[in-house]
UniProtKB/TrEMBL annotation, chain A:
This is Cache domain-containing protein. Gene3D superfamilies: PAS domain.
From TrEMBL, chain B:
GO terms for molecular function: DNA binding; DNA-binding transcription factor activity. Residues 17-87 form the HTH gntR-type domain. It comes from Nonomuraea dietziae. InterPro entries: GntR_C (IPR011711), TF_FadR/GntR_C (IPR008920), Tscrpt_reg_HTH_GntR (IPR000524), WH-like_DNA-bd_sf (IPR036388), WH_DNA-bd_sf (IPR036390). It holds the Pfam family GntR. This is DNA-binding FadR family transcriptional regulator. Keywords: DNA-binding, Transcription, Transcription regulation.
Length: 239, 251
């Protein structure tokens, strides 16, 4: 089945994902260089990656809510865990994200267990997770894009960007609205990333029976998402 | 009606099963709530066993358990006997004061709000949780079960509720749950006076995870609400005991 509307959705998703990872590449290179040139790598040395982090935020203006590096435990000489993560308010300068890294705290931001950290650490490949509730961190509903940073096989941590789920949906609004039928973008765990029907809003899980009843209109290679469509007309027509 | 404190603390234990645990729990709670003060001497074993309506064997086992938890100490010789050692944690006094000062209507309000947030979170989590999130819930309850201190229990229990709200895919419910945990978490886990027995909390959380896994949304909500209501009722009981009994008189 090759529905041109579905193909447009797939192209748009691909373009957004490549934009984000393309911008992250600068941070990754910056972090690896920073590590190579610092004899004892400390959190202060990470200031050397700030130009790339801010550059990435500028490049992804209107798309990413935050970017930065998350260091693997044991890599920095002065801190067991560390995030150098910056958020982008619409007008002002980037704001440093201050999280609770005390393991004994109720709000402890246990990032090593988070999929966006653990998956690239395990596979050494880039990864997209979400949408999910990022509590203790940004307290928003987001998609997180991460890629591993490594030097001579040593895993340094990940470089990443957050895209608010609402923003991601808005970026797809045009192509979704153009589809005459119900179209749903679903992530690897079956969760709706964006849709053009109120029946399955972003964040909902696509029920098994729905997954079977609905045709998979397109499979995206990376991230391994699907676009499912039903022949049903959309309940809400826009204009 | 003014009730003599000793009458409540040492009323016969008529629960036929797990008498040792019942005695331990009742005495530990009385100590946690300060109804039995630090340094107070407990009645002689025979007398105490008789008033609790348990055998001296049961009572001795209970006292041994309390000794192990550092809540009583036994001194030998003249002037000896079993003495109460209040929890060393200075926050306990503050928590008692808070629990005494909160009215039952305020406790009910807190309970209603908790049930609304956590009940809805559980229902939505049953509809939306991923396998990964269910695995995390199991992990948190394992941590709760293995916890050795009241602080660890409180953190793991709080984390469970927060993770359920996150699995519901709701930032607002998650935020509300974090606020609830920082506001009332410490009351629910008063040292030695846990509102709900830790073992029961673990069982109840596991049932909720089962319902979430089975995608039984209404059941997940009902189980959560029932569990929270039990905790709220216990806090109200504690409140009443603190305001009606005040400092206990022994003799």
């Amino acid at each position: 089945m090759s529905d041109p509307h579905v193909a447009h959705v797939a192209e748009r998703v691909h373009a957004i994902v490549e934009d984000v990872f393309g911008a992250l590449e600068e941070i990754r290179v910056g972090m690896e260089e920073c590590y190579r040139s610092s004899p004892s790598f400390t959190s202060a040395d990470l200031a050397g990656v700030r130009p790339q982090i801010f550059g990435c935020l500028r490049r992804l203006r209107g798309v990413a809510a935050g970017t930065g590096v998350i260091v693997a435990p044991g890599v920095l000489a002065d801190r067991p865990r560390w995030l150098d993560w910056w958020q982008a308010p619409p007008e002002d300068d980037p704001v440093f994200l201050d999280v609770d890294l005390d393991p004994d705290s109720l709000d402890f931001y246990d990032y090593t267990a988070a999929e966006w950290f653990a998956a690239p650490q395990r596979t050494r490949c880039r990864h997209v997770v979400g949408p999910y509730v990022d509590y203790g961190g940004t307290d928003t509903y987001v998609l997180t894009f991460t890629a591993p940073a490594q030097v001579d096989g040593r895993f340094l941590g990940v470089v990443g960007a957050d895209v608010r789920a609402a923003r991601f949906e808005a970026l797809l609004l045009g192509v979704l609205a153009a589809c005459p039928t119900q179209v749903t973008l679903v992530n690897a765990e079956g969760r709706v990333v964006a849709a053009n029907s109120p029946r399955l809003p972003a964040g909902a899980l696509l029920p098994e029976y729905e997954a079977q009843a609905r045709a998979v209109a397109a499979r995206l290679p990376d991230p391994p998402w699907r676009i499912v469509s039903s022949s049903r007309e959309r309940a809400v027509k826009l204009a | 009606m003014h009730q003599l404190p000793g009458a409540a603390v040492f009323a016969p234990v008529d629960d036929g099963s797990g008498r040792v645990e019942v005695v331990v729990r009742r005495l530990a709670e009385a100590i946690a709530l300060g109804l039995v003060a630090d340094g107070d001497q407990l009645p002689a074993e025979l007398e105490l066993a008789a008033s609790l309506n348990v055998s001296t064997v049961t009572l001795r086992a209970a006292l041994a358990a309390l000794r192990e938890r550092g809540l009583v100490e036994t001194r030998r010789g003249r002037g000896g006997g079993t003495f109460v050692r209040g929890p060393a944690d200075p926050s306990t006094a503050r928590l008692r004061t808070r629990l005494r000062e909160l009215s039952t209507s305020e406790l009910r309000e807190i309970g209603d709000y908790r049930a609304a947030i956590a009940g809805t979170a559980a229902r939505l989590a049953a509809l939306r949780a991923s396998a990964d999130q269910v695995a995390r819930l199991h992990h948190v309850v394992d941590r709760l079960e293995a916890a050795g201190t009241v602080g660890e229990r409180r953190r793991a229990d709080g984390r469970f509720h927060i993770e359920v709200a996150a699995a519901a895919q709701s930032v607002r419910l998650t935020r509300a749950e974090i606020d609830i945990q920082s506001e009332v978490g410490e009351l629910l886990w008063l040292p030695y006076g846990e509102a709900v027995d830790p073992g029961e909390v673990v069982r109840s959380h596991r049932q909720v995870i089962e319902a979430i896994t089975a995608r039984q949304a209404d059941r997940a909500r009902t189980l959560t609400e029932e569990h929270l209501d039990r905790g709220t009722e216990r806090l109200m009981e504690f409140h009443w005991r603190l305001v009606t009994q005040g400092r206990r008189e022994w003799r």
